[in-house]
Amino acid sequence: MSSFDPNKKVYPAQGGTFSMIDLLRSFADPELEVEGISRISDLHMKVGEPVRYRFDGDLETIEGGVPLSEEVLKELVFALLNEDQRKALIDNPRNDIDTGYFWEEPGINFRLNVFHDRDGLACVMRMLPKHIPEIDELGFMNPQVWQDIAALKQGLVLVTGVTGSGKSTTIASIIDHINKSQKARIITLEDPIEYIFRSEQSLISQRELGKHLTDFPNGLRSALRENPDIIYVGEIRDATTAQLALTAAETGHLVLTTLHTKDVKGTFSRIIDMFPAERSNEIAAQLSFSVAYSISQKLLARKSGAGRIPVFEVLKNNLGVANLVRTGKLHQIYSKMETGLNDGMNTLEQHLIQLVEDGVVSKEEAVAHANDANIISRLE
After folding, report:
1. In CATH terms, is domain 135-377 a member of 3.40.50.300?
2. How high is the mean pLDDT in each 10-residue block of the chain (380 residues)?
3. Distance, CA of 185 to CA of 342 (rounded, Å)
4. What SS3 class is residue 217?
5. Which of 35, 42, 184, 315 is 20 to 30 A away from residue 85, measured at CA?
């Protein structure tokens, strides 16, 4: 039986000694919340450095924290892993563990990645919000966007952004709304499962990579045999997953998925580049038929200093957009979004300008996150 205990106090900080659970308590502190969402999103630990939290997007060192030794970090992190995961890390430093941890006391789920760097063991833990935001609270520039997506019966919806930009939360809100309002069969393929859904109007099955499926492609093939209306694929990571997602969308399913790209134009390029060059035209044509919406998002600090707010770039597929994708004229997509406000589209810069003018985000913050900073710089 393992001696690792998440309540074992081993880390000196703030004039005391902390356990793993003690380090997690900041995530549940109501004084560090804005509208029920913690301003702390991540916990970072690595050998040779003190513990750090990501607070409103910035890394902050814990008060009075000392550099972590390999032994102390193992005591903290190994308490959250099972024997097989610990053995994998010990046997081969090239292994990394991507898993989840549920802290029962406040009912908070964490996603954690444990790995080695040149100094030794390291770990990053991300808190998953306790409650799924209502879909109308996400903050789309045009609420017609989520209404249209929730009403879709088929097609591919891509939600993209860098790590930690809120992609999973956006999709969870969409799924939650559909679950409460439609009689649909929903299957999710996740790595790991982040938000727990309880079947309401819809019937939901959640499957986790490594526990219920070997990989996303096999999970997708299986899902297509399970009579789904909606499939959520945690992330498109390779050409096989991309191809299966496109095929599922073409054959009468609504497919929701994420991708790590910084803007809408880059999303199409990324998917096309996953395939051999000789298939570029074929994949571009499939994308032009299958994609319903492509959404890119970022999280920005509020001007008030209290938490962060998402900003969205939205492309809705129509005949003009489909033609640009099919013919490879991706550089013209931006202008389509710019002139498509009445159709539910908007550029990142248009949303940033609105947030600046509403006093929600500072001009400096908007410039720092804009894809084209010159557009924001021209604001008064």
Report:
1. yes
2. 84 94 93 81 96 93 95 97 94 91 88 95 89 90 95 97 90 97 97 89 94 92 96 96 96 96 94 97 97 96 87 97 96 95 94 96 94 87
3. 32
4. helix
5. 42
